[in-house]
Amino acid sequence: MKWSRDDRPRRVVVISTGGTIASRWTGSGYAADASGDDVVATAAVPDHVTVEVVDLFNVNSSRMTTDRQLALLRAVHETLADPGVDGVVVTHGTDTLEESAFFVDLHHTDPRPVVFTGAQRPFGAGDGDGPANLYDALQVAATVRGLGVLVVFDGLVHAARGTVKTKTLASDPFADPSGERVGRLGFGRVDIDREPVRPASIPLPADGRPAPRVDIVMHHSDGDPVLFDAAVAAGARGVVLVGTGAGNATPEIAAAVARAVDQGVHVVLSTRVSAGPVAEVYTGGGAVDLAAAGAVLAGTLRPGQARIALLAALLADMPSTEHRTALLRTLLGGPENPDPAVAVAAAAA
């Protein structure tokens, strides 16, 4: 599909942000410490590829913030402003890689690839996976075109949209629980199986726009609106409600969603289940009532990426709440309200 094997020299820029691939032992645990140059020095470089390094920041990815993600987004766009660059690789911690990669993908219009990778074992470990992952990411960044932002890990190529961390420590931590991988690597080549489906990309947020608070609140047995209401009271402009099953909660939480929406807070409904769509199947506080209260269904996006879609919509320059909601639905993607009978049949299959 959209890849090339010609021997033209390729120039790839590696943007280093920290994570396990850059982590060393501190005496009590591992922390991001190694520079981008140090990380790149551990890996072989594919033939005909030259590498340049940008040290953007160096943190464990559990410390990721919207301001850092905005800095990364702008660094990617500034890098691709140079027509001599063929691709970008971002080294990133795995904890929040799915969020940063999706954030960049929502704003990515260039046919040249941005490839996220990292490691599950630390810098300098004898069995470290960082060098092989980085080699693969460089190879993908030097060859594919028109596929958006990708995640390359353990010999597999994933689309940013839908790909989440599904295993805490295994060497193959990433997958799209509701979809298929994009491709794989092996024997010196990149094999692409499918082209990711992506909504139209949106412009970069305006410089200086303050980052809005966007919270995630999970429903559970005995769940009540206390934490949801607390998020709104704390100033959240958006809340992702993580429902049970196909996106269900209680009548009391549905009422809290309606109050929040009336105050101008955007609410997205996702699910704590690992795969499948959110669907309007149940009432009694289920997705039927939550959607009627104003929540927007997240499709198959899991909570972290649903939050990123909501964040991107809030950062966008929109003339009204209605326009912002329409943008949010587009960014979330997927069927907004699948037929309940079809959803139930699919769940039972």
UniProtKB/TrEMBL annotation:
It comes from the Bacteria. The active site is at 20 (o-isoaspartyl threonine intermediate), 20, 94. The keyword Hydrolase applies. Residues 11-197 form the L-asparaginase N-terminal domain. SUPFAM superfamilies: Glutaminase/Asparaginase. The keyword Hydrolase applies. This is asparaginase. It comes from Streptomyces laurentii. The lineage of its organism: Bacteria, Bacillati, Actinomycetota, Actinomycetes, Kitasatosporales.
